[in-house]
């Protein structure tokens, strides 16, 4: 196709592109007094559907960079997904005791590490990546020692999986009352993974002078002689508590349990 300027304006002429076609166009121009050279450069001569070398080069560049971008996006997405998995955490040897304890816990089939240690939501998980990178940097540059009881686990992460809990456990224990006075983490510090000091020592990462988790502020934990270990004694002075506060006698009320029973005798009969 050729665009020519005649006496009355521009005229588009289609021809096959062979010599006969060009001769015909030349004859029309000679008779009309027009000229193809006087037409605007972009209209002088063009072939329908054929891309110029520059256009082809630009298309190739766009395709190459588009492919690179897609590959980069796929790699980034894959890495983000993989680093969210709990088995990625054990890549650092100091996390191995925690990973093993998590596998032995009741949370192994219900929650990943990030469910308890990172706020929910895509934005929160992406925002945590710089913190994870800092931990990776510390892995290579510092001598990390544990346990670290300064790690905060807000209640909001717990209720994400436990929106409802029993208001009363057993005959006396009130969960509602305890919720008002303590955070989930204070009573359930080892729920996700109960890591022993021995396992940390075996891994070579035990902090000097380390002990078990501290008790909540203002509590006086103790163990009544002969009584089996129960969670209450982590916070309460069990030696001074009345048995009837937790236990319900299988007979008519005859006074306080300790008037007739001892903890050693009760424990041997399996009633405590």
Overview in brief:
With 272 residues, this protein is mainly alpha-helical.
Task: Give the DSSP E fraction (strand runs of 2 or more residues).
Answer: 5-15%
**Count of the separate structural domains:** 3
CATH architecture of the largest domain: Orthogonal Bundle
In CATH terms, the superfamily of the largest domain is Di-heme elbow motif domain
* Major pleated sheet: 2 strands, antiparallel
**Fraction of residues in helices?**
40-55%
The radius of gyration over CA amounts to 39 Å
Distance between the termini: 101 Å
What's the CATH C level of the largest domain? Mainly Alpha
The global form is: elongated
Sheet with the most strands: spatial strand order: 1-2
Given the structure, what is the number of helices? 12
Describe the structure.
With 272 residues, this protein is mainly alpha-helical. It folds into 3 domains: 2-50, no CATH class; 83-214, Multiheme cytochrome fold; 218-272, no CATH class. The protein has 12 helices and 4 strands. The strands form 2 sheets. Strands 1-2 form a two-stranded antiparallel sheet. Strands 3-4 form a two-stranded antiparallel sheet. The longest helix is centred in the N-terminal third of the chain and has 30 residues, at 53-82. The radius of gyration is 39 Å and the shape is elongated. The N and C termini lie far apart (101 Å). The model is unreliable at 36-48 and 265-272 (pLDDT under 50).
Q: Which descriptors apply to this entry?
A:
12 helices, elongated, 3 domains, 42% helix, 4 strands, two-stranded antiparallel sheet, 272 residues, mainly alpha, 5% strand, Multiheme cytochrome fold, single chain, disordered C terminus
